[in-house]
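Purpose: get a first structural picture of the assembly so the mutagenesis plan has something to point at.
Setup: two entries, given in the order below. No constraints added.
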Amino acid sequence: MSEVNTNNPGDKPAPKPKRPKLPRTAIPEQPPKVRATNFEEVSLGYDQDMASTEASRCLQCKRPKCVLGCPVGIDIPAFIKLIEEGDNAAAIAKLKETTSFPAVCGRVCPQEEQCEKLCILGRKQEPVAIGRLERFAADWEALNGPSGKPEIAASKGKHVGVVGSGPAGVTCAGELAKMGYDVTIYEALHKPGGVLVYGIPEFRLPKDIVQRECDYVESLGVEIKLDHVIGRTMTVDQMVEDGHDAVFLANGAGLPAFMNIPGENLNGVYSANEFLTRSNLMKAYRFPEYDTPIKVGKKVAVIGGGNVAMDAARTALRLGAEVHLIYRRSREEMPARNEEIHHAEEEGIIFNLLTNPTQIIGDQEGWVEEIEVVEMELGEPDASGRRRPVPREGSERRIPIDVVIVSVGTKANPLLTKSTSGLELTSRGNIVADEHTLLTSKEGVFAGGDIVTGAATVILAMGAGKLAARSIDRYLQGQPLLTAEEEEAIQAAGNKAAETAAAK
Amino acid sequence: MYKILDKVDYSDDVYMQVIEAPAVAAAAQPGQFIVLRIHEEGERIPLTIADFDREAGTITIVVQAVGKSTRHLQTLGKGDSLSNFIGPLGLPSEIENYGTVVCAGGGVGVAPVYPIARALKEAGNKVISIVAARNKSLLLWEDKMREVSDELIVTTDDGSCGRHCLVTEPLKELCEAGGVDLIYAIGPGIMMKFCCKTTEEYNVKTIVSLNSIMVDGTGMCGACRVSVGGETKFVCVDGPEFDGHQVDFDLLMSRQRQYLEQEKISKELYEECRGDHKCLK
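Result (structure tokens, whole complex):
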């Protein structure tokens, strides 16, 4: 990583200028042509000057709207003020009061849809770069050593089992450990982190960062048992019998969905999950140093328009392929984060918008050779509120292609749910959990994250983890679980606390 | 880490290992499989459970060395350890009293048939087993199979032991004679395909256990998909056992060959390094 480009090199941190005229501080990135050939992180992060300058843009609102947009309720103005003052240790400590994953969230949260969307500064100019500042504080700690642990309450003598070490599970475990519970996380894979290790590529979220944040949760006293497939190695019922006083199910979204078009089982057709798991978790991009192979053709088609599709496309590009993204709606309806789409475009992913695959055609040996697509136009809005794509008759064409990556979402994994008695499921196989308490139909069993909501974002899963921890705490103390009104009152009180902090 | 407690070489390519994995052994059922990883740079290898001992907390696997990883695994013995050992995975065999059941195993496929035959016997079935191999030296677990069977038939492709024929010949005779209620056929794809073709004529339900390429083994990646009755199924969560008359074996075998090229590269490099993994870096 020798070259860096700053979008506005003239933007030198100067004597503190008057608020709020300063433009948003650009973040240095690897230039597109360079990063398209390596797996190192795209975004290089702020240095101290950049961070202080950006932090100085924060208006320190008395009623900070940004906090309302954060699913875990981070005291945003407070940590930003500490960065502005140069007290990074205090800033990271402030963050850790509410989040166990600041280095992750600073990188992969859709801030533009959450905290930054509500930033008052955003009305007239660009909002404060909250995510970049969060990342700065977390990375500062990684370089300078841990700045102390949060307080851990005296042992409550109760044990909680958490299924899954993704963002929901680890957040819940961390919160419960701080409250004084014994917590064990059961992880099916051989590394902790869930989607953060198998799904999100190294160039967007380096794996040592995930490991560091999992180590941190272990340092709070949480035990992480790897290679344990709940539903197979042991069931949820056995967990209860074995003395877990409560259980939190956060086993994730699960099975990849396919489109059910002809040719989907040909050799060279991957689910995005498989392609990314091979590359990220199994390090197939370093084959043959690592044993797991991956097939990357010369021309790859990625089907879908979400963040996962962008990750798969940019991974294939880095493995040397020409990549065609095929999405049936227009760029405007793409579910991926703007920044990810922008990065993909910069790196040279070829976008085939308003295009839908109709079949995949193979050669004699059963390998992908071509993909047939049809042009689409947008009709009336459908149930999702987006305009429904309609095929344009007679517009079929074929693109020669040798690998296809299908990224059209996931379905609930039946492995755990089918082996658990008395667990109510939705018609789609997701677990039914109360919106305000995350309690399932089963005594002492709570559930949250993708297995309840379907595939969503890291931060929403973390929000569910925090909520589950609050509920489990009340449940284990024999207190009634909170009603919707009480939950709202707690959130309002949290905001009030933020106001008080901001006023100081 | 998971310790290897015992190892036996059956031939140059076929070996057995007994691995200490109490949590897996406690839950293991006939028909299920495990996923193991030898070391930090290793791939996740799915292998059918050949036997389990809940008291000793062990799982037995029987492996045929084909590529680099299974070759490397063969070099490990008593006292060595594996980085990861995950399971039991997949759905267990549906063990009931069906009446008369034929259990046919081909090559290393005999090993996974063994716990199924044992369970079927315990459930009160009359068990007729067929142990098949290319030649005498590749014949596996004849004695163990005899112990759990009412009748045992041995076949070799070259006639070096037992009957000189393919496994399909006695299978056809048994179907012809009638009175067979269920058939288990486990072995290489081609063997299962022809077993199913044979039994289809007589309309005897035939269960096969599919060994497709997998990564996680828990439903997440979809690498193991196979077409059963025209529908896409995941071997790891919907299987590994399916009604053989519904399985698209040509697709299964085609998908099994996906990484031949990479396997060759990997194996050649491994042999050059004589097993010293670090030399690849």
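The longest strand of chain A covers residues 368-381.
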